[in-house]
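Suppose a classmate hands you a notebook page containing two proteins, each written out with its sequence and a corresponding row of structure tokens. How would you begin to make sense of it? This section walks through that situation. The first entry is reproduced here exactly as it would appear on such a page.
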Amino acid sequence: MSTPFHPSADERHVLLNGRLIPQCEASVPIDDRGFLYGDGVFTTLKVVNGEPIWFEDHISRLKRQCAYFGIGWPEEWFSPEQIYKLIHANRALTGTWKMRITLSAGDQETLIRPCGTGLVTLSPYPLQTVTPLKITRRHRTGDSPLYRHKTLAYLYPLWVRREITPRGSDDCLLVNEKEMILEGTYSNIFWIDKDNHLFSPTPELPILEGIWIKKLAERYPIHWGYFPFETLRSELRVFFCNCLTGAVPIRSIDKMTFRVDPSLPFKTP
């Protein structure tokens, strides 16, 4: 099997405000509110053999988020035609790639702003062997509406991951002040009991409803609810999931260990 061609960073192209340009020529204005304050939104999706997976779902969520934050939606910047131009320009027709679509609010402070910067990047994302995760529990307080959106104010999950990695953990499970299960730093969580029933925290909680678990719920019934941490027991199979990694088994959270079986009793999205 031939190895997919991966252009170097200097050889890659991006879409910047609807223009296909070399990545090395792309820049963001110094007064852009996304750069200054994290005033913007983004999404990350997988491209497999030249096809962006669940592209319309990602675009629909971005549109909703832009409407919520008062950022104009430049339809022509993110059309399928533009996206495929980017894929072909980067010769991303084989293998697995990561695409990130970012929108910022520009330099205006009005309630409704035109999109200031719209950026689409593409980088190789080689598939890796699935390794069960070692997870640390961490509290996240408050009910900020920002938790339900993928904003550019993304320092908290990055900081959490950076803090726990030297301690030997792969990720964090976030719980609220009442010990209710929320989500991972980059992922949703679900678990399977001995009868192959699926459970996951309700999207009514201050969490991001990820597209991977949304697509799973379209195929199989999920029992959504408010689950305290003590709900998780050793006989359960527990997983983190997102659009890039799919479902990844969790082997432990703090001192609690779980049944590890990477195979799932259903076909994954």
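The notebook's second entry, a different protein, reads as follows.
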Amino acid sequence: MTTRWGIAAPGGIAAQFVDGLALVDGAVVAAVGSRSKERADAFGDRFDIPNRHGSYDDLVADPTVDVVYVATPHAQHEAVVLSALEAGKHVLCEKPFALNASQAKRMAETARARGLFAMEALWSRFLPAYRVVADLIAEGRIGEPLLVEADFGFRVPLMPEHRLFDLAQGGGALLDLGIYPLQLCSMVLGTPDSVVAEGHVGSTGADEQVAAVLHHEGGRLGVVKAATRIGLACTARIAGTDGWIEL
């Protein structure tokens, strides 16, 4: 079976994604779209993509496309995803899927209503190490998991124009980096009953460091930290009643 992909936004992440698709049986990149036709053409020339579009609307309307990979800046995710779904296309959207819960709900409801596949492209969820972790937990090797601690952060020089520090582009430590420890907690513990969080907002208005405690049924806890202005260990520990796993 051949799956025909359309690439929304020909940036660096999209280039890595297309490189990866070359390793997937049946995957074909049929089209690329950008707000700049010149950029779409340059990307198409680089990867030998036949159809190039100067707008995302034209991309999602392309009949040669089955699935749209969305690699736009964070703040544009909802608009492009909804446009693709409304055009009858399946969607794989770069993380973070949305800027807030309301956006995520609208996109999920639209996909369900139209019977389409929509997923967040969170690469770490598919790492071999994470699959081993899931197997170890399923086998009961550490007993019942009761606590997940995870952090991800590194020191980035303050650049007000960079997306990490620009709220208009969906910047901030939580959305860009905190999503990784959060998804590990979600994988192991599921959906929390409540969340308590604190953060520091920098001079640009974007959060530069954040810490959160996720409370789950039965006293299970997830503790996550993320930062863009200080380095963190970038480690995780899953503690259970009979042992623990460290990443």
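A careful reader of the second entry would note: The longest strand covers residues 145-153.
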